[in-house]
């Protein structure tokens, strides 16, 4: 996709990393905005309105997790790629649970960062273009309007992160089909996570919390043991 005019906010307290990322992003025709701590990141997002945020977890004043959580509570849905020096799976899952779109563990190559950025931005652009051609998707009391980017359950509007919404749309487009985690990764995240399918499980868990009356006995999203998930057509009202 054309990177021209796309603005990337780089949030990291280590100047060498900011400089490295800034240089490589500019070489790929992205515009860059820099922040060195969590509070500055919140300010820059509000004032500069970037297209995507590269957000380090370990930050002074306010850590990356808190920044992500704060932005999502404010209704700011700018895509976020978390950067962490930790290999702890808990950090990765927590980042996804509070609304991050992707994560990368340091050390990483600038080429990989740019590939992730392109994948996330391409996914958003493709989703917007596709939504214009789609009609209302529904199952029982659940209705999703891709073009308006809204969903309702029993006529009550639901609140989703962009990635949760895209996953829900894909499920509804493939009702009653068994979908593997790898299929969902490829279709919704549009990037090869090298078998790291936990991101799918985290987002499915979030969807269940929002659309199922009993998450332990889901009506819509059923687990297919050893394979993945199936979104079943609901006859209820």
Short key terms for the protein model shown above:
Rossmann fold, 2 domains, alpha/beta, 237 residues, single chain, Arc Repressor Mutant, subunit A, 12 strands
Helix content: 40-55%
Shape: elongated
Order of strands in the sheet with most strands? 2-1-3-4-5
The CATH architecture of the largest domain can be given as: 3-Layer(aba) Sandwich
Q: Determine the mean pLDDT.
A: 85
* C-alpha Rg (nearest Å): 18 Å
CATH superfamily of the largest domain: Response regulator
Let me know the number of strands. 12
Strand content: 15-25%
Quickly name the level 1 CATH class of the largest domain.
Alpha Beta
Element order: H for helix, E for strand: EHEHEHEHEHEEEEHEHHEE
Task: Could you tell me the CATH topology label of the largest domain.
Answer: Rossmann fold
Largest sheet: 5 strands, parallel
Distance linking N and C termini: 42 Å
Overall domain count: 2
Unreliably modeled segments? none
DSSP helical segment count: 8
Q: Which structural class do you get from the secondary structure elements?
A: alpha/beta
Give a brief description.
The chain has 237 residues and is an alpha/beta fold.
Report on the structure:
With 237 residues, the protein is α/β, with parallel strands linked by helices. The protein has two domains: 7-128, 3-Layer(aba) Sandwich (Rossmann fold); 135-231, Winged helix-like DNA-binding domain superfamily/Winged helix DNA-binding domain (Arc Repressor Mutant, subunit A), CATH 1.10.10.10. It contains eight helices and twelve strands. The chain has a five-stranded parallel β-sheet, with helices on both faces. It has a four-stranded antiparallel β-sheet with strand order 6-7-8-9, covered by helices on one side. The longest helix has 22 residues, at 110-131. The radius of gyration is 18 Å and the shape is elongated. The model has no long low-confidence stretch (mean pLDDT 85).
């Amino acid at each position: 996709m054309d990177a021209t005019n796309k603005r990337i906010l780089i949030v990291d307290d280590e100047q060498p990393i900011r400089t490295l990322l800034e240089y490589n992003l500019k070489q790929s025709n992205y515009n860059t905005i820099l922040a060195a701590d969590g509070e500055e990141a919140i300010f820059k997002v509000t004032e500069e309105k970037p297209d995507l945020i590269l957000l380090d977890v370990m930050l002074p004043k306010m850590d990356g997790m808190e920044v992500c959580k704060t932005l999502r509570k404010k209704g700011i849905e700018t895509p976020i790629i978390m950067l962490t020096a930790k290999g702890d799976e808990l950090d990765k899952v927590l980042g996804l649970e509070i609304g991050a779109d992707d994560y990368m563990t340091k050390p990483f190559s600038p080429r990989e960062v740019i590939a992730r950025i392109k994948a996330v931005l391409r996914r958003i652009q493709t989703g917007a273009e596709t939504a214009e051609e789609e009609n209302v998707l529904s199952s029982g009391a659940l209705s999703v309007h891709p073009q308006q980017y809204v969903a309702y359950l029993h006529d009550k509007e639901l609140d989703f992160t962009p990635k949760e919404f895209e996953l829900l749309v894909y499920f509804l487009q493939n009702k009653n089909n068994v979908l593997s985690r790898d299929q969902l990764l490829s279709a919704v995240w549009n990037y090869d996570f090298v078998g790291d399918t936990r991101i799918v499980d985290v987002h499915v868990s979030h969807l269940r919390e929002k659309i199922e009356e009993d998450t332990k006995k889901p009506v819509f999203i059923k687990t297919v043991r050893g394979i993945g998930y199936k979104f079943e057509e609901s006859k209820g009202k």
